[in-house]
Amino acid sequence: MALASTTFDYDHGRQVSAYVPAAPPELVVFCGDGQLIASWGEGLAAAGAPPTLIVGAHRSSDPDEMVRLHEYSPGFEPERFAAHEGWFLEAIMPWARAEFGALPALRTVFAGVSAGAELALAMGLRHPELFGTIFAASPGAGYRPPAELPAPLPRTWLTAGTEEPFFLGNATRWHAALSAASADVVLRELPGEHGGPFWQAEFVRMLGWALAD
């Protein structure tokens, strides 16, 4: 098992962290906020999760949180979002395939928490041919269900805490929209507040669900 980082030219130098499991991966997870989510890999084996490769792009170093939000959600600054989206599709994913090998879309997940959950939903819905599963914990409201949803839809696991009603409401909105479109979607409401430990615990559960028939 190893956690390593590399630096891309994007945004004057932006890191991507990768957690590489000891066994051949059964799943690959792409995500924003890579400095957080890639670090979860160390506990996956102990928690009984399937071998999972995690490839996470670090967030912007700009202290203005709106920069991150505008990169992650297409509804604010479409050009900024498109640049970040293109970085994933044209640089990060080809690099990951070259370094670690490819897995089919049904075994490829886009995951995120908070604003990163908006990124996961946007990437999954805009590119269902690449990402067979979405994991969205406590999504914000900057990206809402579009009027027209793609077909087929990625399988989607949503979760939010009882002590974060704003984010729980967003997750519930997504669950209703995806259910109405006949998607395979799960919503779990759990005790906890924004940023709570339930995010990491749900990540382990989602990995097992992503491999279920």
TrEMBL record:
- Among the Pfam families in the record, one is Esterase
PANTHER family cross-referenced by the UniProt entry:
ENTEROCHELIN ESTERASE-RELATED (PTHR48098), FERRI-BACILLIBACTIN ESTERASE BESA (PTHR48098:SF6)
What's the name of the protein? Esterase
